[in-house]
Amino acid sequence: MIEFIRGYIDYVCPEYIVIDHQGIGYEVFTPNPFAFQESRDKLVTVYTYEYVREDVRALYGFLTREERRLFAKLLQVSGIGPKGGLAILAAGRPDEVVRAIEEENEAFLCKFPGVGKKTARQMILDLKGKLGTFPASSAARASALRSEALAEAVAALKTLGYAEREIEKIVPALGLEQLSTEEYVKRALAMLLK
């Protein structure tokens, strides 16, 4: 297994990032690719999970080992695949997900795309008492708004499986402030999960 990749961010899109490591570009799917956008031209470490099936071989990347550990645990739940695991982690709050599982808060878990009552119940049955603790996420980094930041955030939300009608409801509230794409995505996810 590849523990991590250390390199430079070469490309960022709503689904994945490309990390240039000594001239080789690794395509890495992440919960929020735009979290890495401000790290361009800086050496970054991305903790990876290698997903291998008969017809698929993909790398999934995370900012912390804790996020990666939760992703691996989520994949063990029947009904949750890599895309669903990324959507759950996209809010950037593994500690809240763990708390919801431990407290059997099905309503909170059902707010994630692709997670219905049956899958939420399965998550609780399979993972309760097996996740340990996760540190709270750090505050979002401040940055200046680039003209395409809101459009990129909307594209990322669509990639995560949110319906356009859901996104349209929150865009007016998001557009009031100047934020980075990452901050738009985190704020949008917080609004969508309420």
Automatic annotation (TrEMBL):
Compartments (UniProt record): Cytoplasm
Name the gene.
ruvA
One GO biological process this protein is involved in is:
DNA recombination
* Function of the protein: The RuvA-RuvB-RuvC complex processes Holliday junction (HJ) DNA during genetic recombination and DNA repair, while the RuvA-RuvB complex plays an important role in the rescue of blocked DNA replication forks via replication fork reversal (RFR). RuvA specifically binds to HJ cruciform DNA, conferring on it an open structure. The RuvB hexamer acts as an ATP-dependent pump, pulling dsDNA into and through the RuvAB complex. HJ branch migration allows RuvC to scan DNA until it finds its consensus sequence, where it cleaves and resolves the cruciform DNA.
For this chain, one GO molecular function annotation is:
ATP binding
Keywords of the record, alphabetical order, are: ATP-binding, Cytoplasm, DNA damage, DNA recombination, DNA repair, DNA-binding, Helicase, Hydrolase, Nucleotide-binding
Subunit architecture: Homotetramer. Forms an RuvA(8)-RuvB(12)-Holliday junction (HJ) complex. HJ DNA is sandwiched between 2 RuvA tetramers; dsDNA enters through RuvA and exits via RuvB. An RuvB hexamer assembles on each DNA strand where it exits the tetramer. Each RuvB hexamer is contacted by two RuvA subunits (via domain III) on 2 adjacent RuvB subunits; this complex drives branch migration. In the full resolvosome a probable DNA-RuvA(4)-RuvB(12)-RuvC(2) complex forms which resolves the HJ.
Q: Which GO terms describe its cellular component?
A: cytoplasm; Holliday junction helicase complex; Holliday junction resolvase complex
Q: Outline the segment boundaries, as ranges, of region: Domain III.
A: 145-194
What is the UniProt domain comment for this protein? Has three domains with a flexible linker between the domains II and III and assumes an 'L' shape. Domain III is highly mobile and contacts RuvB.
The UniProt entry, under Pfam families, shows: HHH_5, RuvA_C, RuvA_N
What the record says about family reads:
Belongs to the RuvA family.
Q: What is this protein called?
A: Holliday junction branch migration complex subunit RuvA
The segment(s) forming the Helix-hairpin-helix DNA-binding motif class domain are: 72-91, 107-126
Q: Which CDD domains match?
A: UBA_RuvA_C (cd14332)
